[in-house]
């Protein structure tokens, strides 16, 4: 049976790859709006651009902080970070799909990029949902256990050895 840490690592790699894809697609659409139409890009595109950057930072924290800064990690904070990515991607791909559906026409490479942005945003939502469920299961199963850094208050004091 495959351990959950291997599954989580695979999910993180896919999340990171798709984050770069969403960032590239969103940046392409935003650049088209800024250069060719001389208007600001829709807020839905800007939101997915922000979420992809937030995703990259989240994956970095979730994978690197427990290894290099274990005192700066907390299981409930990591779970909240997972849940915020789930909500951000859900809001992003739904809002962009509603925006695209209300356009009078949608053709060309920019429209295709925006539609691909919706699809990869939905994949990211599913990936983050899966990792959030796995992390939530682990957090609820193990509870909050941080390694003790000091002796408990009721520990007996050390005594000097009887000298000769």
How many E strands? 0
How much helicity do the residues have?
over 70%
Name the helix and strand elements from N-terminus to C-terminus, one letter apiece: HHHH
Largest sheet: none
Indicate how many domains the architecture comprises: 1
> Based on helices, strands and strand pairing, what is the structural class?
mainly alpha
Report the uncertain regions: 147-152
Morphology: elongated
Descriptive tags:
4 helices; 0% strand; 164 residues
What does this structure look like?
The protein has 164 residues and is mostly helical. It has one domain (12-142). The chain has 4 helices and no strands. The chain has helices spanning 4-37, 43-68, 75-101, 109-142. Helix 1 runs antiparallel to helix 2 (43-68). The longest helix has 34 residues, at 4-37. The termini are far apart. Residues 147-152 have low confidence and may be disordered.
Chart the SSEs and their pairings.
Elements: H1 4-37, H2 43-68, H3 75-101, H4 109-142
Helix pairs in contact: 1-2, 1-4, 2-3, 3-4
Short description:
Helices cover 74% and strands 0% of the residues. The protein has 164 residues and is mostly helical.
């Amino acid at each position: 049976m495959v351990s959950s840490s291997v599954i989580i690592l695979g999910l993180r790699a896919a999340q990171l790859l798709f984050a770069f894809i969403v960032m590239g697609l969103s940046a392409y659409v935003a650049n088209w709006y800024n250069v060719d139409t001389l208007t600001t890009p829709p807020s839905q595109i800007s939101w997915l651009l922000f979420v992809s950057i937030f995703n990259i930072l989240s994956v970095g924290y979730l994978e690197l902080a427990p290894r290099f800064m274990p005192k700066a990690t907390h299981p409930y904070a990591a779970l909240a970070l997972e849940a915020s990515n789930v909500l951000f991607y859900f809001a992003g791909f739904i809002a962009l799909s509603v925006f695209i559906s209300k356009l009078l026409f949608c053709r060309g490479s920019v429209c295709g990029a925006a539609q691909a942005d919706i699809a990869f945003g939905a994949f990211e939502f599913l990936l983050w949902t899966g990792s959030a469920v796995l992390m939530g299961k682990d957090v609820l199963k193990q509870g909050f256990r941080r390694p003790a850094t000091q002796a408990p208050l009721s520990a007996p004091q050390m005594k000097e050895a009887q000298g000769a």
